[in-house]
Every structure is written in C-alpha cells, then in structure tokens.
Amino acid sequence: MKDRLFWIPKEQEIKEAETTDVYFNYATKALSFAKINPKVTMEVYTRKTPFDSNWAIACGIYEVAKLLEGLPIDVDSVEEGELFLTDPNLAIYEPIMQITGRYQAFAKYENPILGFLCQSSGICTKAARISLAAEGKLVMSFGTRRAHPALAAMIERSSVIGGLDSVSNVLGARLLGKSPSGTMPHAYILCVGDEARAWKIFDEALPKNVARIALVDTLSDEKMAAIKALEVLGKDLYGVRLDTPGSRRGDLKKIAQEIRWELNIRGGKNVKIFASGGLDEKEVLELREWVDGFGIGTSVSAAPVIDYGGKIVEIEEEKTGRALFRSKRGDLSGRKRVYRNERTMSDVVTLSGDFEMRGYSPLLTPLIRQGKIVKEFMSVDELKERTKKIVRRVSKTTPNLSWR
User: Fold this and answer.
1) How many angstroms separate the CA atoms of 393 and 300, rounded?
2) Beta-bridge partner residues of 340
3) For residue 98, what pLDDT is reported?
4) Mean pLDDT, residues 265-279
5) Which fold has domain 11-122+304-403?
6) pTM for this prediction
7) What span, in angstroms and rounded, lies between the C-alpha atoms of 38 and 34?
8) 328-351 pLDDT, tens per residue?
9) In whole angstroms, what is the distance from residue 202 CA to residue 205 CA?
10) Three-state DSSP class for residue 279
11) H or E segment and range at residue 320
12) Integer Cα distance of 391 and 215 in angstroms
C-alpha cells in the first residue's frame, strides 16, 4: 500500500464515510439523478441480543456524534452506556438512536454509524455482565491481544464503561487517562528459566507502584509455587496469578482454595489471588468466593456484536410537511419514544407526540441539532458509575417492555 502501513482507515476517511458500502453511494447517485431527497427519520435498533437476557448496553453513541457533527441533521439518542430492553415475543422495539434529515445528507454514513455502535455495545454489554457476576471483585481487561490493534482503545473504553476496573493496553489506558494494569507473562518466566529468580528480578527492576503479582503456573504446581513466591518476596508479594491452560487446569476452584489455605497459615492472609485464562461469566460465578480478582480476555474483547440496523420509519411529505408513516416489511412505521420507570425498570414505547408518561422519564434525548452536538459528554468514569447503577437495578428487578 502506498499511503499506509496497516489495513486501517484514517480518521478523515471514516469522517468522510469512505468506509461505507458502495450501495449507499449507488442509492444517493440514483436519487440525485431523479431529484428525490426527502426528509426522513431513521431509527437504529435491534430486536434481540446475543446474550441470555432481555437487556443490553448501548455504546459508541459519542463516536457517532463526532462522525455526524456538521451534517444538516437532527439526532436523538439514548445516553452513552444506557441499558435498553428487548422482547422476542413483541414486534415493538426500543430505538437507541433517531436521525432526521434529508436522506442524501446522511445515507452513506449508515455503515460507520452501525460499525461504531454494534461492536462497542457488544463489548460493553459483556463487560457489564462479567462485572455483575464478579459482585464487586476486581476485574481487569486483558483481551486486546486477541483483537486487531486498531480496535484496542475502543475495546478498553467499552470495557470500562461496562464496569471493568482496569485495562492492560498501554494506548487504551493513556487515552482513558489511566495507568495500565498487568502482571507478568509466561514468556518472561521462561526467559529467566527459574520462577523464584524471575520474581526476584521483577521485584528489583520494577518501580514500587507496580504491584508484585507473581505468575505461579509456568513451571510448577500452583500451590507449591504460591508458597515459594511468599517465601521469596515476603511482605512485598501483593498477589499470585493463576493462568493454567485448560488442558492442565483441573479444578481451579479447589486449587484456589488450596492456595488460600497455604498462604493463610504462613502469614500470607493479605496476599491476593487472581485468576485469568479463558474465563467467562460461568467461571467468574464459580470462583468469585475464592479469588480477589479476574483478568478477563477474549470473552469481552471478542464479545458478539449487538445486531443493530438502521431503518427509515417516517418520510415528510414535501408539499404539506405532514409525516407519512413508511417502513419496509417487518418494521414498524412512525417515530417512536421510549419512557422508563427507573424504580421498576419498566419501559414503554409510544408513537412520538402521543402523550407523556407520568412517573416515567424519556430515554431518547437530543444529541445533535442541525449539525451541532448539543449533549454534554460525560467522562468515562462518570459513564461507568452510571451504567453500573443501572445494571445493578435491572439485576434486582424483572425488566418489562411494553407499548401503547
């Protein structure tokens, strides 16, 4: 390639919608030829999630705002990190975003709009589910090594908004204004050739603000290596990490219990136990009583996407300005509103302008007005705390979606 080293788009190429599918360009060219350019409302939504729950988290909203900034359109959306509901038994859905404007003004942006939202939302939702399963135990994001490097910062941001406590990726951490977190790789132990010596060198070489977490499953039995780590590092040992491959793991919960007992009776009650290596929600639930933290990798960074689509639901009649309800087969016409009872996590979808819902608050609020971003962006930490509260609330209720 003459103009780049890696197969990644430049920011300006994304901003100019060069990453779109060509059929949007064909459509706008044909419409322009016929001098057809109606004012429309498009809704972004999904009717199902890839998870065993009827809720998911919308993420990527702010990036879409920056993408569409400057276009002659209006956009309403849910807040970044907002929880939305689905119900496979209902035809109704909750739009997470509505775009209103002349179709040709934003048609070619459908690809990057969905691209920003689909993957971020899947990662954020999975992170929220892992965080919920961990019940307050520390959860670190370890997954960017199994994703394209161009996605690393997005993965870490989405993971934090979903509830993970720290990130390992250096660039991701820097862009988030945080310090990266990590321990030591097996390769380091193998290069030294001796676990005890490797832990000692690590302790002597690294600054004191780096936690001394010894990897204890490279060459030895985990229990015996944990005991040895305590002997070598003493009070400086912050924790031990278990990352045994699945082929050799055995019963990880019992291994953690053995290590906890052996450390405790040797004065190591304050030494933390961390688990990593192919963990998902099931393993987190099983281990959370016996370990102090988790390193979560592929299950979050390669989380299934939220399958949003962008569909026109209304077209403004040119002469009268009257809204014409119009949608393709299988979709529902008309601009919609979503209202939530925060106490019961009950959502109601109505036709926009029908009526106000007492005791309910609207989920869709102005994001862009005539190309100008009008929503004040929250910080990542603020979004994380807000999302955590919503997820805790939904976990203690039976969320319900209905329509009127």
Assistant:
1) 22
2) 347, 361
3) 98
4) 96
5) nicotinate phosphoribosyltransferase (3.20.140)
6) 0.96
7) 12
8) 998 999 999 999 999 999 999 999
9) 5
10) coil
11) none
12) 33
